[in-house]
Design goal:
This is ATPase. The chain is α/β, with parallel strands linked by helices. The chain has 15 helices and 9 strands. A hairpin with a 3-residue loop joins strand 6 and strand 7.
Length: about 300
């Protein structure tokens, strides 16, 4: 288990050691979250690297990663705990057949720890040999407001109440990272318990650095063209603009096809790696893709000429 970073620079270096390219504002809020024990709330478009932050933290700090993937209808039984009803029924039948326990004793026995199924939040509150785990509550905006309200107790006191057993409190608070794609607004009461950061699409320079770290096998010319092409796509009103994850996938796909630079045919053939909706693909493929590529090449030539002066 590694020690927590002691400065913003240390935090940025920690993320870099996990091959995560972060700007200073993200490193700052992450450092404060780790130092002061506050949950980190990350909001932004899908594919901008929010979930990856929790994974990198767990890897670089040597902590366990406990992930709660949120969805509509998520309840306490799926997120915190539930009883193993099948085992409880077997225990009841066996006790009835043996006649060795009265009703009160049986009730106490079947509502004990051995019949408890721990879900992510309860697991994150348990003591861990590697130290407090990283609890990732992913895509909280997909859940309903009642579950969001339930989280208030967890984030305020890092404890949950199980009626049959009592209150379970974390010996040391876990590192909590909450993400949201902002499909709906999260209530202010929950946000107040967290430090907030908006994870935006990266600039050209930062995305170029990300690809050089994450897709080192791609040719340098291809990497620069891919990043510039994707940056141009994000200026177009698409149903779903590509995130960093799609940029990386596209660079890997083109490298697998032995491409060292973008060309119209390769773009049309692989747009399904980059764009996830047919309407967007139909809008870009063909002449529009060639127009963007020509613009990218022209701008890169101009930049090269400027630097050579």
């Amino acid at each position: 288990m590694a020690a927590l970073p002691t400065s913003v620079d240390d935090t940025q270096q920690l993320l870099s050691s996990g091959r995560y390219v972060a700007d200073r504002s993200l490193s700052t809020v992450l450092y404060l979250s780790l130092s002061l024990g506050r949950p980190l709330f990350l909001e932004g478009e899908a594919g901008t690297g929010k979930t990856e932050i929790a994974k990198v933290l767990a890897e670089t700090l040597g902590r366990s990663l406990v992930r709660l993937q949120c969805y509509e209808g998520l309840d306490v039984a799926s997120a915190v705990y539930e009883w193993n009803y099948a085992r409880q029924m077997v225990e009841i039948r066996m006790s009835e057949a043996a006649g060795d326990r009265d009703r009160d004793q049986l009730s106490a026995d079947i509502f004990s720890e051995q019949f408890l199924i721990e879900r992510p939040i309860l697991k994150a509150l348990r003591e861990d040999v590697n130290g407090p785990p990283v609890l990732l509550i992913d895509e909280l905006d997909r859940t309903d407001e009642p579950f969001e309200a339930f989280l208030l107790e967890v984030l305020s006191d890092f404890q949950v109440t199980i009626p049959e057993l009592g209150t379970v409190k974390a010996p040391k608070p876990p590192i909590v990272v909450i993400t949201s794609n902002r499909t709906r607004e999260i209530h202010d009461a929950l946000k107040r318990r967290c430090y907030y950061h908006w994870v935006d699409y990266p600039t050209y320079a930062r995305e170029l650095e990300i690809l050089r770290v994450k897709a080192p096998n791609a040719a340098d010319e291809l990497t620069r063209q891919v990043v510039a092409f994707v940056q141009k796509l994000r200026e177009i009103d698409l149903f779903k603009v590509p995130g960093v994850a799609e940029t990386l996938d596209w660079a890997d796909a083109l490298t697998q096809l032995d491409k060292v630079a973008l060309e119209p045919g390769a773009i049309d053939d692989t747009l399904g790696v980059l764009l996830k909706y047919q309407d967007d693909i139909a809008r870009i493929e063909g002449s529009e893709a060639r127009r963007i590529l020509d613009q990218v090449k022209q701008e890169m030539q101009t930049e090269t000429a400027r630097r050579s002066v």
